[in-house]
Amino acid sequence: MTQKIWGGRFREETDTLVNRLNASISFDKRLYPYDIKGSIAHCKMLAKQGIISDDDASKILVALGEIQRELDRGVFSFDENYEDIHSLVEKTLINKIGSLGEKIHTGRSRNDQVALDMRLFVRDAINRIKDLIKKTQKALIELAEKNIDVIMPGYTHLQRAQPVLLPHHLLAYYEMLKRDYARFEEGFKRVNILPLGSAALAGSTFDLDREFVANELSFDSISANSMDAVSDRDFVLEFLFNSSTLMMHMSRLSEELVIWSTQEFDFITISDSFCTGSSIMPQKKNPDLPELIRGKTGRVYGDLLSLLTTMKGLPLTYNKDMQEDKEVLFDATDTTEICLEVMARLLCEVTFNKEKMEAATTKGYLVATDLADYLVRKGITFRQAHEIVGQMVLFALDQGKELEQLSLDEMKTFSRQINKNVFTWLDVRSSLKKRNLPGGTAPSAVKKCIQKAKKELEE
User: Fold this and answer.
1) Among residues 185, 217, 241, which one has the least CA distance to residue 115?
2) φ and ψ at 360, to 5 degrees?
3) In the chain, which end has fewer C-beta atoms inside a 10 angstrom radius, N or C?
């Protein structure tokens, strides 16, 4: 039985069932690079402050390096009797250099130690996700440029509404990802605060140089309150919320890819390399990848809700409930990263059916708003114009025609203000060009947005 690092005041061995429930090493072993990195910085600071000798520190640092390399090679068996990764590293250190290894925990608690490891992990995860967001944005921009002249219906309530450029539609997702990137970047500031030196909850009696450790580990600042530092998981919750929002955006895009790939829409074809088939129906080609991204969004939501629920009733400071922060963090990180990576590559495997998409803009009275705008320019109030065009749509429905198929005489029965120049307002491409304002779907406006987006990514 591996002796517990906290076993001094206990007379009896821990029940094996307690070990099973209590141990976190099966999942927090992922934190070992951060645990060792934090221990190295802490050890250097102890020597700098004269709390341990330089010679002792040197031996500890060499041993920590050996442990790092051994963990990298996977030579350890992560026995639940070690309880957690912090205990494994410390016990291994002691096995290597004897009682000298026991000095590493001077002025430190597992409470501030794990808070440090978690912040280091989240910090790296944010940087990886930011890079993947940029790759996905780049894929969207390339797809938009490749299909710069493609027209499609814009939808509300999943009903055809107005004609838009496909690149304009794609750039909407670029903007969503841009906000996601900004949220992670802003959240990084709140992650990058050093908790080490808070000890269990009250700080330490030793003269610790927290600023030195912060500098060693590239933290921007140190925590202001030791009780808050060891019991705070806001930075994890914020990361999970940002991941959930990002996944929601990717789920919306995935939903459209799924819909567009149906025979009913037939707007896109996804390459065979990013689809799967059916075990019974030989003809099937299923958009499983976007479906999985859509499905895994709920999983990340669950990770967020799980930790929110865990934290909601905890008194200060550390409580064992907070051990539940790791699995949801790791799961959300892994899920978000693989979904982003897949989406960035999937977008490069999409081909648009340009003719089918443009044909869809010619049915469904997509230029009705343009006709109302035309009437407003003739001096009619918009509400009156709205009513007139609504009546014209009803008439066209009864005749089995689109608005542009009505004769001038038929149109004049609804308003004498209409003349022959009305037909330029009923052309889909003319409709697009008229929306030449910042943020609009006119080709010139969209091209400016693409150039702006490319410049943003370069910067």
Assistant:
1) 217
2) -70, -20
3) C
Enter the DSSP assignment of 38.
H
The CATH homologous superfamily to which domain 7-106 belongs is: Fumarase/aspartase (N-terminal domain) (1.10.275.10)
| 330: enclosing H helix or E strand | helix 325-346
**Whole-angstrom distance, CA of residue 242 vs CA of residue 182:** 10
The pTM for the full model equals 0.94
Residue 169 a catalytic site member:
no
Tokens of 256: 């459209």
d(CA 323, CA 301): 19
**Active-site pick, 157, 273, 279, 407:** 157
Answer yes or no: CATH 3.40.50.2300 is held by domain 111-205+220-359: no
> Please, are residues 410 and 396 in contact by the beta-carbon 8 Å criterion?
no
- Cβ neighbourhood burial of 455 (10 Å; 0-12, 13-18, 19+): exposed
The model's pLDDT over 212-263, given as tens digits with 9 standing for 90+, comes to 999 999 999 999 999 999 999 999 999 999 999 999 999 999 999 999 999 9
**Residue 276 half-sphere exposure, CB side, CA atoms within 13 Å?**
8
Provide the 8-state DSSP code for 159: E
Residue 407 backbone phi and psi in degrees, to 5: -75, 160
130, containing H or E segment? helix 110-146
- Indicate the domain borders of the chain: 7-106, 111-205+220-359, 360-449
- Catalytic-residue membership of 278: yes
CATH homologous superfamily, domain 360-449: Fumarase/aspartase (C-terminal domain) (1.10.40.30)
Which residue in 26, 53, 221, 278 is the catalytic one? 278
- Specify whether the CB–CB gap between 240 and 300 falls below 8 A: yes
What tokens does 419 get? Answer: 């003349």
The model's pLDDT over 67-95, given as tens digits with 9 standing for 90+, comes to 999 999 998 877 766 889 999 999 999 99
SS3 156: strand
How far is 40 from 108, CA to CA, in rounded Å? 13
